[in-house]
Amino acid sequence: MVYYKLIHLPRITKEVKLTDDEEREIEKEALEYNIKLIKECLKISENIIQEERLHNRNKLRIALALYEKQSSHVVYWKDRYCRIKLDKEKLKFMEESK
Q1: Model confidence at 6, in pLDDT bands (50, 70, 90)?
Q2: What is the DSSP string of the chain?
Q3: What residues have CB less than 8 Å from 14, skipping those under 6 apart?
Q4: How far apart are CA 50 and CA 29, in angstroms?
Q5: Nearest of 29, 27, 39, 28 to residue 70 by alpha carbon
Q6: What is the spatial distance between Cα 74 and Cα 94, in angstroms, rounded to a whole number?
Q7: I want to staple 62 with a disulfide (CB 3.0 to 4.6 A). Which of 1, 8, 18, 45 is the partner?
Q8: What is the pTM of this model?
Q9: Which pLDDT tens digit goes with each residue over 64-74?
């Protein structure tokens, strides 16, 4: 499935498409980031429970709340990559037109 994003620039709208390989790579990076993040959130929630002397049953709730506040969605990652790809295209165009 091809992911594409319409990016609105002054006086022009540009469509940027990701290849299947680019899309899979971005999804992989987002997954790895989010796994690392949830593990960090679990450690933080353990510390909060110990410091505040809360019941251990709240550990998962606290971790999920922290994770939801910090996690990035895959769509954000793809949109960001589209913007980077467009910037590279603009730079290449500018160099070629000199």
Answers
A1: confident
A2: --EEEEEEETTEEEEEEE-HHHHHHHHHHHHHHHHHHHHHHHHHHHHHHHHHT--GGGHHHHHHHHHHHH---HHHHHHHHHHHHHHHHHHHHHHHT-
A3: 6, 7, 86
A4: 32
A5: 39
A6: 30
A7: 45
A8: 0.61
A9: 888 887 777 77
Joined tokens for residue 82 = 């589209």
Cβ 63 vs Cβ 43: under 8 Å? no
For residue 43, the one-letter residue type is K
Tokens of 59: 């550990």
Burial class (CB in 10 A: 0-12, 13-18, 19+), 64: middle
Query: 36-54 pLDDT, tens per residue?
Result: 989 999 999 999 999 998 8
Of 67, 85, 69, residue with least CA distance to 21: 85
Q: What is the per-residue burial (b if ≥16 Cβ within 10 Å, else e) of 3-23? A: bebebeeeeeeeebebeeebb
Q: Are 5 and 82 in contact (CB under 8 A)?
A: yes
